[in-house]
Design goal:
By secondary structure, this protein is of the alpha/beta class. The chain is built from 17 helices and 6 strands. Helix 10 runs antiparallel to helix 12. The chain starts with a helix and ends with a helix.
C-alpha cells in the first residue's frame, strides 16, 4: 500500500503543478459556458439596428395595426414603416428596385387577395435575422386576425380582450412538491453537466494513457518496476490522476456554489442553472469516480499495449467511442428523461456516468434505478480493471511488437 501511495503522490503533484491543469480548469467551464449560455444571450440581445419596411396593403387599417405592433417598445428591432395602399402588381418591381438600391430593407405584400389566399409574402435583402422575421410573422398574424374580426362586426374593445396574450407558467410536480421555473434552464444544466463529464473523462483518461506510454517508451517503467509491481503502479497512476480530476471537480463545484452570491453571479442564466442542478451535485462525484476508474482502466491498458503515439491514436477511437455515444443521445435524454429508452440507456455502464447524471439533473429518477445503475457500473468497472491489469502487466514490458487483438487476448490468458 505504501508503494501505491508513493505513486499516487507522484502522479498528483506532477499534474496539479502543470500549466495544463490550470488552463483546463479555466477553459473547460469557459467552453461549456460558451456553448450553452452565451449563444442564447447573444441571440436575445437587441440588434440596435433599424429596419426600413414597406407594407403593401389594400386596407390601411391592417397596415396600421401591424405597424403599431412592430413599433412596440418590447420589439428587439427598431422599425421604420412605410405604408402603401395599392393592389397593383407593378408596385413589386418598384419595391424590389428600392431593396436592390439599399433604400429599403424589405416589404410585406398584404393585399386582400394575399390575405384571403392565406399566403402573405415578405421580400427582403436578407432573411437570416430570425428574430426580426419572427416579429414580422407575429405582427402579421395579429394584424390580419384583428382585421378579420372587425370585418365580422366585432367591436374594438372585444377584439382587445380576445387578442390579449395568455402567459403560461410551467410547474413541475414531483413527489407532491411543486417546482416553478423555466424548463430551458434545466436543459442547459443537463447539457453543461454532460459536456463537463465528457471532457473530464476523456482528458484525465488520456492523461493516464500518455503517462503509461511516456514511461514505457523512455524505459523509465523498467526502473520503476524494480521498486513496485505492475498492479501497484497501475493503481497508483489511476488513483493519482483520478485525485487530480476530483480536485478539479471540487474547484468547479465551489465556484458554481459561489455563483449563488450576488458578488460572483456572472449571469442570471448560470445562477438558475446551478440552482436547478444543485441536488444532483451529490451524485456527480460518485458517477465521475466510477466512470473515471472504468475508462482510465481502458486507457491504461491501451497505453501499455502500444509502442508509440501513432499506434495509440489508431486504437484510441475504440475507447473514446463509448463516450461519444452518450453525447449524441443526450438531447433525447434531456427531453424525455423518464422514457423507457432513456431508462435502459442510462443503465448501460459505459453510458451511465453521463446519461444517468443528465436524468438526475432533469427529473430525479426512482432510487432503484440509480442504485441499479451504480451497481452495474461498479461490477463493469471491476471487470474492466481486472482485464486491464492483465494487459498492463504484460504490455508494459513488450517493445517493438505491434499489438493485435489475438495478441492482447493471449496476454490476458497468460497474465
Amino acid at each position: 500500500m505504501r508503494n501505491v501511495w508513493l505513486v499516487i503522490r507522484r502522479e498528483y503533484l506532477e499534474r496539479v503543478r502543470t500549466r495544463a491543469f490550470i488552463i483546463s480548469t479555466v477553459l473547460i467551464p469557459a467552453f461549456i459556458y460558451g456553448v450553452t449560455v452565451l449563444p442564447s444571450q447573444l441571440a436575445m440581445r437587441k440588434s440596435g439596428g433599424t429596419k426600413h419596411i414597406a407594407i403593401v396593403t389594400s386596407n390601411a387599417t391592417v397596415a396600421q395595426m401591424i405597424a403599431s405592433r412592430l413599433q412596440e417598445p418590447k420589439s428587439e428591432t427598431r422599425y421604420v414603416i412605410e405604408t402603401k395602399v395599392t393592389e397593383n402588381p407593378s408596385e413589386r418591381d418598384t419595391l424590389k428596385q428600392q431593396i436592390t438600391a439599399g433604400t429599403l430593407d424589405g416589404y410585406l405584400w398584404l393585399t386582400d387577395e394575399a390575405i384571403n389566399a392565406g399566403k402573405v409574402e415578405y421580400v427582403a435583402s436578407s432573411t437570416s435575422d430570425f428574430v426580426a422575421v419572427n416579429e414580422l410573422r407575429s405582427a402579421v398574424n395579429a394584424g390580419v386576425t384583428r382585421a378579420r374580426l372587425m370585418q365580422r362586426g366585432v367591436s374594438a374593445d372585444e377584439i382587445e380582450r380576445m387578442m390579449k396574450p395568455v402567459q403560461m407558467e410551467t410547474v413541475e410536480l414531483k413527489g407532491g412538491k411543486e417546482s416553478r421555473g423555466p424548463g430551458d434552464t434545466k436543459f442547459f444544466a443537463g447539457f453543461a453537466i454532460a459536456m463537463m463529464l465528457y471532457f473530464m473523462l476523456i482528458f484525465h483518461g488520456m492523461a493516464v494513457m500518455r503517462s503509461v506510454l511516456e514511461e514505457k517508451t523512455s524505459r523509465v517503467m523498467e526502473v520503476m518496476l524494480a521498486s513496485v509491481n505492475a498492479k501497484e503502479l497501475m493503481a497508483g497512476k489511476i488513483l493519482g490522476v483520478g485525485a487530480v480530476g476530483l480536485s478539479q471537480l471540487a474547484i468547479w463545484v465551489v465556484l458554481a456554489l459561489g455563483l449563488n452570491t450576488p458578488a460572483m453571479a456572472a449571469s442570471q442564466e448560470l445562477r438558475e442553472m446551478v440552482t436547478s442542478s444543485s441536488s444532483m451535485l451529490i451524485w456527480l462525484p460518485v458517477y465521475f469516480v466510477l466512470g473515471f476508474l472504468l475508462y482510465s482502466g481502458l486507457y491504461a491498458a491501451l497505453g501499455a499495449a502500444v509502442n508509440s503515439d501513432q499506434e495509440a491514436q489508431q486504437w484510441q477511437f475504440f475507447v473514446t467511442m463509448p463516450l461519444i455515444i452518450p453525447v449524441i443521445l443526450m438531447t433525447m435524454i434531456i427531453r424525455q428523461p423518464d422514457a423507457p429508452t432513456s431508462v435502459w440507456l442510462s443503465m448501460v455502464p459505459f453510458f451511465s456516468p453521463i446519461l444517468m447524471t443528465i436524468r438526475i439533473a432533469m427529473h430525479t429518477p426512482p432510487a432503484w434505478q440509480i442504485a441499479l445503475s451504480i451497481g452495474i457500473l461498479f461490477v463493469t468497472m471491476y471487470l474492466i480493471l481486472a482485464l486491464s491489469s492483465r494487459i498492463y502487466r504484460v504490455g508494459i514490458l513488450m517493445y517493438g511488437k505491434r499489438p493485435t487483438l489475438p495478441e492482447i487476448v493471449k496476454w490476458i490468458r497468460y497474465a
